[in-house]
Amino acid sequence: MNSSLISEGSHRVAVYYQTQYDPSLAANSPFGFYVTTLPLIGLITHLLLAAFHINFDDVSVHLNDFVPEAPIFVQMWADIAVLQQNGIKVIGMLGGAAPGTYTCLTPDLFDTYYPVLRDYIRRFKLDGLDLDVEQDTPLDDILHLMDQLKHDFGEDFIITFAPVASALEEGANLSGFDYIELENKAGHMISWYNAQFYSGFGNFFPDDLYLAIVNFGKGLDPSRLVATTLTNPADGFGFIDIDEIISSAKNLSEMHHFNFGGVAGWEYFNSLPGADNEPYLWAQQMSDAMHELKANQT
């Protein structure tokens, strides 16, 4: 089934795609073993391409260690275009654990650094940005960035955030601003939150924290809360088994009249149960589960 048939408003299946070349496998290209995303067609709704960084010293944007137009990414961009032709939205993840990106988007530096980012979004036809703010950043700087993105790319441009899950109930937070205040001021511009339920900042099984976030303060509609979990224990702390993820997703959906934002996996290349050789199997199982839930939605 074409992934575009799944509602944009719920039951998303997304994967983060940061490792384009798997160092554990024998090379199948001049740059190493290329991990293609083409098997994800029909399985996911969104590909979260990680990680874009803005570099202060030379006023540049890198995708991981290279400029986005580098030869190492030529095949990746060709495959991504095919995904988009098949209804999958491709969202660039901006920021992450490496500091510095959001320091380049302060009011005094914005006009110098933002245009470089804007031009790459246009050049590679990204459908949105996932703002992963893991450094102390003033809320006003984030609001300014969002306003400019909507001005430049229109209301259909997808803006998501990737906070640690606890930040959505004003707990531990890596971003330096209050997400409840962000939601109150600019929730209409935020498509959804890819909350990180791992690394000690929350767990998706049992589902207590997801429920706490949905019910915190004025509440957050479950259709706008995507649970991001680890796909392999090698990728970080707090891995839970795929069966537990599906169990929580089903339970939460039933509690909310089958209204559920969906799931995301960090990250694609070594996802269990298929691991390096068949990483798409995680997405396949999640897709099957989300389609079942979608069929029950009223």
Automatic annotation (TrEMBL):
SUPFAM superfamilies in alphabetical order: (Trans)glycosidases
GO MF entries: endochitinase activity
Catalytic activities: Random endo-hydrolysis of N-acetyl-beta-D-glucosaminide (1->4)-beta-linkages in chitin and chitodextrins
GH18 domain span: 11-293
Keywords annotated in UniProt: Carbohydrate metabolism, Chitin degradation, Glycosidase, Hydrolase, Membrane, Polysaccharide degradation, Transmembrane, Transmembrane helix
PROSITE patterns per record: GH18_1, GH18_2
InterPro entries found in the cross-reference section: GH, Glyco_hydro18_cat, Glyco_hydro_18_chit_AS
Transmembrane segments: 31-52
Coiled coil regions, renumbered to chain: none
GO biological process, one term: chitin catabolic process
Name of protein: Endo-beta-N-acetylglucosaminidase
Native source organism of the sequence: Mycena pura
Lineage, uppermost ranks: Eukaryota, Fungi, Dikarya, Basidiomycota, Agaricomycotina
